[in-house]
Amino acid sequence: xxxxxxxALEHLPSYKAALERGWSPDNVRLMEATREQLAAIxxxxxxFLADLxxxxxxxxxxxxxDGKKVPRLPGFRRWIWDGEASGxxxxxxxxxxxxxxxxxxxxxxxxxxxxxxxRGYATEALRLMLDExxxxxxxxxxxxxxxxxxxxxxxxxxxxxxxxxxxxxDAAYGGAESxxxxxxx
Length: 185
What we know:
This protein is 29% helix and 28% strand. The protein has five helices and ten strands, in the order βαααββββββαβαββ. The two termini are 24 Å apart.
């Protein structure tokens, strides 16, 4: 059985171990993000955890992959947990609307550790995160996936997602072709 847990010191050693095994919670920045997270954990574990849970968007601006700074959106990250860290799922939104700024690819992003993939972890984590999206009053969420990622398509479709468009990502993310799915809440 899996759950999504609020990031906490008690879970941090397991999460750190997953990073040290070479897993990345960031599907865009990959190992660069892993190195940054390991350094942040080493420097100040409490601050690292606090940065992952910011539903009021009190943190500073964030850097896009191209280095451009943009205002932080309200959001938080949960860890996919089965007794140990099995992945990560994040949720972000704009207050008062289901729409997102053009530089934001989707409301929800997730990554499962390679040694636990194909077990339904992402499908269940997304199902659980949809409850969080309902709780902030969104009418729908959007999730993007690359055309060559059928595993992610399956996760989204299993949770009621419908393909709404093919598009090219903002140049900040490399301009690659992507698919946008919507899940009505």
